[in-house]
Structures are given as structure tokens and as C-alpha cells.
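Researcher: Structure prediction, please.
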Amino acid sequence: MSRADWQRCWRERRADAGALACVVLFFICFFPQVLFGNRFIIAGDALYYSYPLRTVAWRMIRHGELPLWTPYVLSGYPLLSMAQVAIGYPLTWGYLFLSGPWAEQVYVLAPFLLAPAFTYAYAREIGRSRLASLLAGLAFGYGGMMCGFIANSGVLTNSLMWAPLVLLFIDRARRRALAHCLFWAALAYTMSVLAGHGQSYVYVGVLAFAYGLFLSLASSFGQQDRRAWFAWSNWRPLIVALGALLLAAGVAAFQLFEALRAARRSARSALSYETFGEGSFMPRAALLSIGAPLYHYVDTSAYLAPLVVLLAIVAVVCARRGRTTHDARLWFWFAIALVAFALMLGTHTPLYRLVYRVPVLNSFRVPSRHTFEWTLAISIIAAYGWDAVATYFARRRAQTTRARKLDLFIALALLTLGILVGIFWWRATNTPPVPNPSIYTGLLEASYWLWKLAFTVVIIALVVWCFHVRAARTRTMLLVCVVLLACFVEQSATVACWWGARLSLPARRLQLVSPTTRYLEQFTPAENRVYTRAGLFAEEFKASPQLEAPNLPAIYGLHNLAGMEPLILERYSRALGGVGPDSVTPRAGLPPNDDLFTARSHVLDVLNTTHVVSFVNLKTFEDPLTYRDGIGLSVVDLDFHLPPGANARLTAGGTDTDQLALVTSLSNSMDEPQGAAVVRLRLHTADGRIIERDLRAGLDTSEWAHERADVRAIIRHGLAPIYDARPGDAPNSFPFNRYWTRLSLDAPQQFNQIEVTNLSHEATLTVWRASLYNSHAGISTPLAADIRSEFWTTVYERNGVQIIHNARACPRAWLVTGAEAVDGEEALRRIRGESAHKFDPRRTALLEVKPDELPQLPSGELPAQSSARITSYEPNRLLIETSAPTATVLVVSEIFYPGWTATVDGQAVPIKVADYLLRGVVLPAGAHTVEMRYSAPAARTGAVISGCALLLLCALFIYQRRTAVVSDEAHTTRR
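Model: Predicted structure follows.
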């Protein structure tokens, strides 16, 4: 372009540049604490998923390794299949030259700047005025989807923000060269796909296809000649839409193929209808979330600024009455809004049953995320409404020749009033969230609605008076202020209550390493896998976290059995007791997985789990406490029952204590006399002594139904001190009592274990709650049933967090002389200790082969001179030296996954599924070198397709550029 062309372009686009400058100003004002206050909004998924895994992936790239596999989470997982890590997405490339937190911050913040700009550009493309387009951009970019409760993860928003740009070039295809539009639409949608969130880019793709189809059909229907149906020009929008989808899929094939392979093997390979509908809006909640997202949301909301909603209504009414220029696209967006709102309701509407039958769409849960289409549609419709209102007032001004001198002063006064109301509303909303911290504000919802009503009235009056101002430049500046103010106040206050301020993290917090991680760093990661058995968000906002939740230990090089991954492998999930994506918590409806720590289970043994990190008593979250006489007790009941003569063990704290508090009750104890010893407690001290205490009927514990008329008539003991009482039956004719006792244990000392024995011949004891207490320091330690086998010992306990060591853990690679042919279900039962057949992983390998395919092995003890040693450990490659005088099976405690290949002394050999989860290689007698490599065949195939698609895109770019140059030269010649 010549200098004159640049000058002409600047004159034409100067006002657009001003509008985009307003977007930047809005962004800066929205995030001052982030841009200038050294705060990070990367919490939730960004902190526990994207940040650690991207750190690992880009560290590998900097070291010259392909990020194909990671050993740092889930005992090994295909890293490239984690599409949300988005290695191919340019906005994650900041990890190459920025610190991890800042690189993630850039990724998270980008949609708040780009989504409004892209939406503005699309609205201008369809003929909306600059102010209307600015309103649409801010409404969508800071609406309930793009600026919702989980928007600080950046995962959804980075895929969704490209939608307006894709639509822009689909729309432009009606007037511009096909190659030009196809290239840019494909590039925009490629960015959406490379951003990695499948649900989001599928929704964008469906919307793009629907838009292209609509424009093509509208063009064909708009012409009376039937031959128009076959006119190439009419179908160009659909061709661009389909071409963009195909080219984007091709460019991202290296990532998509690997993700699809993992998805087929994941616990989410198919969703039940109940799971598919998780995250549906109730109809009432959906409506309320439009106006009060702080109180009504799922993980997104349907929020739009009140001015936007009102203008959308105006647009539809005016279009229906024929008072605006006919534009079929308005009705397209109206239909999209209606369908999206219905889809947001999920299982609360019959429509969702039909969606469940649609392939691809039935792979995604959380219907509330259709707020994407809803907020985009209403934002665009509102732009039509703004222009309708502007046209109306322009006619009014033309009919009135006399200027009203007070209009400007009234407008300025209303603007000042709007700012003041907004400030006070913002402050009222950001009061501390007491007593209900889950709402994140201390402002009552009724008061919130009153503030909103007052602010909305002022904004509407301000809009009306601003349109009355006759000076065009002054009017425009005032209306810009109105748009910015209307879109800013409520959402800024809401986000500040969430991750914008209250739930943001200081820079120092992201640099902290927990004491448990420091402790574990002393062990060689390749020989000691750890299991961070803690809830994903357990320590998220603590100033000094005591442990790292999955996936954060990956940053420090720890090999973790745990990990956060939506596509957790189904076998892995089942082996750990049906855990969900966090690899810790069993899915809804499944029992607790504490049996992993019993003697019969070998799951953690075969996975080389030498250490487990958790909160005390193997809790995944720190128990909240309730207090009685100054002693803290867990609010979660133990609720374990000891029949007559039975015994059980309780855990003991790692701190000095001198008192034991118990909440118990007896059942069927009518014959126990007053003062009779019914329970014996044996407390094992750290120095090997045993302290005994008894619980006595009527003094320390009593019958739960003591006050029932028939029991009271015959019971032989009285009431012990009552802890609490609740209705004993439906009519509440008697109380269900639980009893409180507090036993002295002499001087403060540490206890390793507490044995509880029921001495009664008839009564059953229920232990509801128990705590050790240090009366000098005022420290309470809640107790739990000790489910651990004797192979687990506590090696670290401090500040409510513990590390336990597994003496029975298998090494990372070992040899066995025996093998059994089993199917997958039997192998699972064996390693979980649920089979009638005993299993010793150090003697026998469970191979999933036919019986006649079993190798010839001697069985029995492994000869003493045998060994297996990992000499080189890289994420994508293992080198193992073995030696044995007999034939053996090498069992490698790494997850079996297609794509791993093995060679023995340079000769290719098959890798067999061993022990349900692991890799097994049959070896002949002698010394051998075993090499395992991850070849990522799906990614390699996809990379070929990606290369071809990129070449096609490049060719398309060159072609459209040459066409544009020829067109410019012809235009210059004509001039």
C-alpha cells in the first residue's frame, strides 16, 4: 500500500480505532489490580490444570524434546492428547520467554481484550453503527459466558472468542473474493480449535455452519429466479463455513487425533443422560441469572447488561412492526437466542433428549454453557436496537429546530449520578460474604435488585437525554460514556467478588512450594511415585499451602499417581475405585476408595507408590471443626459400629496430647448396669507404652434410645452427659441421644494408635466423633478409623497434613518368574484384592493373553542374582538393563498405552498388558537391554494431515494476496 492508501485507510477507520481504544480503556479499568497490582487471576482450572501442564510441556520443548508423553501425572499420560494444554495455540507460546504465571495470565486475559474487538468488527461488517458495535462488543466480551465464574481459566473463552471473527468472514463471502474469506475464516476457526476446548470449538463450528447455511438460503430465497438456487455466489457463505471447519480440523489434526484416541479409552468415552445433563439451568434460575449472576449461575450465567436486554427487546419489536430496515440476520440471531436459552435448560426441557441423540454434541455436559450463543445473539440484536433508537431520536432532532439549552447539563448531571450510583452499588456488592460465603457477597439479593433498578433507571434516562443533545461530537462522547458505564459497573462488581479481586492470588503465592513437596523432593522421582491424595481446590486460597493438589507437583518434577484430567483413562479410574477427573474423588454414587490402603489391595503397590500425601486421617479435604468445651471435633461423623466383642483402630495425631474426647452411643444395652465397663481403649504411645482407659455405662456413654418409654422402664444405667439429641422417630416421641466424654491421659505425649474394644456381650457401640486434645496448647486433632495396613507408616505430620510411606511398594521395574492368563476384569479384581485368588505382584504377572499364549516360565522365587534397573529415564523413552538366569517377565510400573513400542537388544517385541495397568515384556534368560519409546502414531498421522492443511492455507493466502494486488492495480488504473 502507498502512503496515500494508508492515509485514506486511516481517515476511513479513525473512528473505528477510537472505538477499539475504548475497548482497551475498558479492559484496563476492569483489571487494574491485575495489570498494576501484581495480582494473578489464574485460579481454579488455570492454576491446577493449564499452568502446571503447560510448564511441563514447554520445558520439554525448550530442552529439545517433543511433548508427547508426561510421567508427572496419572502415572504417565499422553501429553499431546491433553488438547486444553493447547501447545499449538499461539497465545500459549508466551511460556517460551515469560515466567509460567505471567504466560498463563496473558492467555487468560486475552479474551477480555480480543472478544469485544472481534465482536465489534463483526457488528460493523453487518452494517451496525460504531456505537452499536461497541455496545455489542462489550456486551458479549463481558457477558455471562465470556466473563462468568470460570472465565478466569481461559479454557472456554479462548476457543469461543474467535466466533465473531469466523462469522465476519462468512458474512463477507457474499461480497468479497472467496479465497480471501475462506483463508481468514479458516485461520480464525483454526485458532478456536487449537485453543483446545472441544465443547467450545464444536459450538463455534455449529454456529458458523448454521450462519453460513442461513445466509446462503436467505440469498436464494430472496431471488425470484429459480436458477438462483444453483448460483455459485449464493452458496459462498456456506462454502466458506464448511471450508473453514475442514481446514481448521486439518491444521489441528496432530492434536485432535491424539485427543480422540485418549477419549475412546477414557472414563468419559460415553456419557449417560444424567451426566450429559449435569450443569443444567433451572428455568427460574436461568431467568434470574440474566439479572443477578452473582446469586444465580452454574459455571457461567446468562447475564447481559440491562441496557443490552432492553435494546434487544426494542430491536425485535421494531423489526416486527416494520419500523426498521429489513435485515434477515436479526431474525437469525433471534432464533439462535431462543434455541440457546432452551438448550441452557438442559434436562429441564424435552429438547435436550433430542440433542443427546446427536453424535459429537452428546459428548459434552454442562448445558448452561450454551450461554455462549445466548449472550452473543442478544448482544448483536441489541446493536440493531441501538441503531433503531438512534434513528428515532435523529428524526426527533430533525423535527425540532430549537436547541434545548438544559439538555447537556441534564445529561451531565445524569452521567454524574450514574457514576455515583455505580460506585456505591459496587461497594455494597463487595461487602464480605457473611454468613454465606458460597454467594461471595454480603449484600442481600433483594438489596442487589434495588441497586440494579436504581442504576438502570438512571442509565435509561441518561441515554434518552444524551440523544437529545444536538451537538454531534458532544452527543457521541456522552453516549460512549453511557455504553462504557452501562457495561462496566455490575459485571465489574460481580467479577471483583469472584476471581477479579477476592479470589485472585498475589504473586508470592504462586512462588511458594509446600513443605510436603520439599520433603518429597529428597527422593528420586523415577524410583518413587507419590500420590497427592487431596481435593483439587483444598488449599487454593491459603496464604501458605501445606500440600500441592494435582497437577502442581509436576512443576517440581515429582512423578505423581494423581492428576487432573477430564479424559482420565477408564482402567485407571476403575483401579483407583471409580475416581473422577481429579483421580482422587470417586464419582457420584460410588463408595469411598479408602480400601486402597488395606492389606488386600495391591493397586498402589504395583504403581510404585512409595508415599501418599493427604490431610490427616487420609482425608482429601481438611475437616471443618465444631467445638465442645474448647475441643475441636470433625463435623463429619465417623459413624462406625462395633458389635459385642469386636475391636477397631483409630488413628492418632502426630502432636503431644493429654486428653481424649469421644462422642458415642450404645444400642441394645438395657442390661448393662450403671458404671459397668463396656468399652476398653488402649492408647499406644510413641515410646512403646500402652495406656488403658474404660468407657462406663451411664457415666461415659449410654443407650441411644434411653428416653424411649419402653427402654426407660427396664434400662439399668443412667444418662451420660449428652452431646446432642435429635428426633428418635418420625413423630419425635423420644430423643436420639449421643453422649460426650472427656478422658485424661496424664502428661502430654504422642500416640501412634488407639484400639477400641467392645467389652459388652450384648450392646453395640457406635463411635460418632473422636479427637485428641492438648489442653496446654489448645490444639485439637480429630481422629478417624485407621484403615491402613501395617505396611503404611507415617513419616511426616504437621499442620494438619501427613505423608505416609508404603513399605510394600513395588519398584519402577522388576522381574517375575510366573505369569497367569487373565481377562481385564479378573486382573482388576486381583490387584484390588477382590478375587478369590491370591495375588503377589512380585512373583506373578497378570497378562491379558490367551492361555496358550503364555510364555514358558519356571515360576517360584526369582533367583537372587536377577535384576532390573532403569538406566535412562526420559518422558518419551526408557532404557532398562535386566539380568536373570531364567526366562522372566519384565514388569514396568508405567501405564500401558497404545503407541509405546519396545525392543530387546535391538529386536522389536510386543508390550503386553500386565497387572491390568502396566507394561510387560517377556524376556529370555540372560542379560538384556530393553528400550521403550512412545511413538505417538496418532499424532504422527495427524501431523502429516496438519502439514498438508497448512500448505493449503499458505497457498490460499498467496492466491488471495495476488488476487487482491491485481484488483488494486485495476482499481488504480480506472482512477
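Model: The chain has six domains: 162-269+937-975, 271-399, 404-500, 516-618, 626-780, 813-935.
Researcher: Thanks, that helps.
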